[in-house]
Amino acid sequence: MAIDMSKTAAPKGKVEQRVVYESGNEMAAYAAHQINYHIMGYFPISPSTEVAQFLDLMKANGQHDIVLIPADGEHGSAGVCYGASTAGGRVFNATSANGYLYMLEQMPVQSGTRFPMVMNLVCRSVSGPLDIHGDHSDLYFALNTGWPIVLCRDPQAVYDMNILALKLAEDPEVRLPVLVASDGYFTSHQKRRVMTFANREDVQAFVGEKPPEGFAHVLDRDNPITVGPYMNEPDYINNCYQQSMAMYRAEAVYDRIRREYAELTGRDYPILDLYRMDDAEVAVFLLNSSAEIVKDVVDQLREQGVKAGAISPNIIRPFPARQLADALRGVKAVTVGDRADSYGGHGGNMTLEVKAALQTYENHTTKVVSRIYGLGGKDFYAEDGLKLFEAAIAAAGSGSGTATPGTAADAARVVKPFDYHGHTPGDPAKAPKRVLEPMKFEELKTGLITVTPDEASGKLNVRVPPLRNLTKKPKRIAPGHGACPGCGIFSGLELFFKGIEGDMVALFHTGCAMVVTTGYPYSAHKATYIHNLFQNGAATLSGVVEMFHERKRRGELDHLGLKDDFTFVMITGDGGMDIGMGPAIGAALRGHKMIILEYDNEGYMNTGAQLSYSTPLGHRTSTSNVGKQQAGKVFHHKDTAQIMAATNIPYVFTGSEAYPIDLVRKAAKAQWYAQNEGLVYGKILITCPLNWLSEDQDGSTIIDQAVNSCFFPLYEVERGVTAITYNPEEKGKKVQVIDWLKMMGKTRHLSKPENEATLREFESEIERRWTVLKAKHEHPYL
């Protein structure tokens, strides 16, 4: 049912409430903690990451019992959530953009097998190219997944809809997972006044204290079930029909639930939010946050005598087609604003659905104008809303409004049925110009470093001159990047690059190193650079490598006058060897001639310092907080070098800028093996002062102490044989682990008596791994 909110007073609430001043992400987390879900599987991605962060902080302080499971990627987080939901409990998640697309395969599985859960989609642009700001391009991918979708235009709605969503998902007539969509960085991060239930018990009384009885799950030994069977055609279409009917029933169920909620709280979310639509002749249809902005424009136009109105749905799956057609019955023209394009469809998804609704319910008089707006987080102001209304006003007074004009005068009156709003024409005079000249091959191929195979030992002999002799080699990354003061990424990378002779093609995973060096229209990279997402960099560079060698074999590159083969290097970090581990192992097993170099800063620093699998035990991050119930990360760090060594690639190494000659020597070896035998993997520990809570100038010292404590040992695995390249015990430089930890604010809590058990466990694991490494060093067949 459509309700005109300009005519209806909100009922008074019946429960005790209190006022908070919080953002949309905070309110999603707050609602989840009041519900007290059983499980949240998650993976960090901006702008939804804060939801897990806030829940982790509350967990550390003992405010809820939700089990937070950091997955290896969004696909994994979706699997965690699906598995948990089949086990009968309540499940929660939050994601955005490419992360949602990565889990997209799992979405129809969850809805098709009818296991409820709630997921917040904090809407963001889907790359490429990469943009992390808010639009609806991820939301539109969700339309065909079989999940009911409710919308949130402000933080208040985020809180309320998260409570409504669970009750909707678990209703026996629906029994589907529900998506709660809000606008990234607009709703998710902007703080607003929000009314909340004062008592958790009232929230749980509304949704029910536990999942409804009668839901089949995999933990009932007296009622074993098969989940997700293989189906043939007649059964599968019946399953889909049942799911479809459940989706359409969700509309009536939602309408009933929102009325119950309105009676409790005084806040109502009708299926359609209609603003001054009772006598409107022109209207604008928008989703989420921009729908609130356009209401001011309606008021301004009304003062000028224009009968304007605004429409915004609170639920788009199922799509409220009949209600919308009825609401537009007396409207001459409506502009539908889509914050994403359905490329080639002559309008965005909402435009197409509005047109279909009007056709289906025999509203043949309302003209529809489509405008794509606000992509990539482009701000939407009242002036932009006025432009959308002007298009509707012009269409309302232009006859057909969309006919092909016959004269110049007609052309001026006819409104384009589809267009973008807010794009700007290119100016050839302002075309980006090359700022950095390509480096000369002779500058890169110095001959100062020599690598020769030793037939007797089967290893490589490397001669590295004094580092001062290598200063003549140009830096491959220009100093004009935007890294934080004290960031160790580029000092570490440039030191490694000193050992690479000749031309190089680099691929960077998403991460700090990528983000701070490629702000369009500029780039700090002096040589060819490619970006792809966290999980697929190794596969992408594999394709580049193989295409190079095949085109070279066919003679298609002869005209370029290449003086040597490229060295292909993939740079990963910020957790990229969690979500990207599978493709990296695949590339290693296939043996592509390339280098994978991981800069390990012990977290997902580019998204706000969440834990990654490389974060050590007990270390503080924004998703491994320290409080009375938790003292940092609760499991040990991932040894990616040893994992990659197990793939039997020709060369694996660890390095540190604190030991420059060692790192340059390993880089030279890495290049030789990558050009002659196969894939190479290297890992360098780098400092992140911002998130390690350390002084900018102490980075090299901290890294040195990490090596001397044996937390980050320097070694190489050459053709399967392990050799420690720096032994602090033999040098008399070994330090206590706690002496290293005290240098960083993120670990100082480990020196407190109450965290002694965690510290001892961490020290024990470091010593165990160091002992195993020494055994491998002493015994070449280990």
UniProtKB/TrEMBL annotation:
Biological processes, Gene Ontology terms: response to oxidative stress
Pfam families (alphabetical): PFOR_II, POR_N, TPP_enzyme_C
Keyword Zinc in record: no
Signal peptide: none
Annotated ranges, domain Pyruvate:ferredoxin oxidoreductase core: 280-384
Annotated ranges, domain Pyruvate flavodoxin/ferredoxin oxidoreductase pyrimidine binding: 31-257
Keyword DNA repair included in the entry's annotation: no
Domain Thiamine pyrophosphate enzyme TPP-binding stretches: 564-670
Listed GO MF terms: 4 iron, 4 sulfur cluster binding; oxidoreductase activity; thiamine pyrophosphate binding
Keyword field: 4Fe-4S, Electron transport, Iron, Iron-sulfur, Metal-binding, Oxidoreductase, Pyruvate, Transport
Family stated for the protein in its record: Belongs to the pyruvate:ferredoxin/flavodoxin oxidoreductase family.
The protein's name in its UniProt record: Pyruvate synthase
Native species: Cohnella fermenti
Origin organism lineage: Bacteria, Bacillati, Bacillota, Bacilli, Bacillales
